[in-house]
Amino acid sequence: MSTFKEKFNKKYKQPLNKSNTLKEISDLTGFKLSGLKKVYAKGIMARKNNPQSVRRVSDGKKVGGTSLKGKMSGPQWAFARVYSAVMKGGAYKFDKNLLVKK
Q1: Residue 74 resides in a domain
Q2: How large is the angle between the packed helices 74-86 and 4-11, nearest 10 degrees?
Q3: Is residue 101 part of a domain?
Q4: Phi, psi of 22 (to 5 degrees)
Q5: Domains of the chain: total
Q6: What percent of the chain clears pLDDT 90, i.e. is strictly above it?
Q7: 34-71, pLDDT tens digit by residue?
Q8: Does a structural domain hold residue 90?
Q9: Are the CB atoms for 86 and 15 separated by under 8 Å?
Q10: How far apart are alpha carbons 53 and 77 in whole angstroms?
Q11: How far apart are CA 63 and CA 101, in angstroms?
């Protein structure tokens, strides 16, 4: 199963595990950086407010529970949301109004 980051990198001809900055994602997709920053901020807050939905770093599985120990960090979770939004995954449904073309 591919992550949205891997799908993004494949689509934009990047090395599969390359981490992109918000600016790079903006430049490649044509979405405004300001909108991507808002999606990122929503990812940070979603992790904080809904810790049971955060996946483990080790295997990417959702294990539930309110402890964030061993789970993705805020920035990891936020970038996952950005990649999901720009690749029209689950986050797109909630963030499409923030994704405005330049």
Answers
A1: yes
A2: 50
A3: no
A4: -60, -35
A5: 1
A6: 75
A7: 999 999 999 999 999 998 888 888 888 888 888 898 89
A8: yes
A9: no
A10: 10
A11: 36
CA–CA distance, 4 with 1 (Å, rounded to integer): 10
**Tokens standing for residue 46:** 């979603």
Radius of gyration of the chain (CA): 13
* The two structure tokens encoding residue 42: 């929503």
Domain span at residue 58 reads 4-96
3-state SS track over the chain? CCCHHHHHHHHCCCCCCCCCCHHHHHHHHCECHHHHHHHHHHHHHHHHHCHHHCEECCCCCECCCCCCCCECCHHHHHHHHHHHHHCCCHHHHHHHHHCCEC
Within-domain flag for 102: no
Residue 28 Cα to chain centre, angstroms? 15
Dihedral sign, CA of 60, 4, 27, 99? negative
Token couple for 93: 């449904």
Find, among 28, 26, 48, the residue nearest to 36 by Cα.
Answer: 26
Q: What is the C-alpha to C-alpha distance for residues 82 and 78, in angstroms, rounded to an integer? A: 6
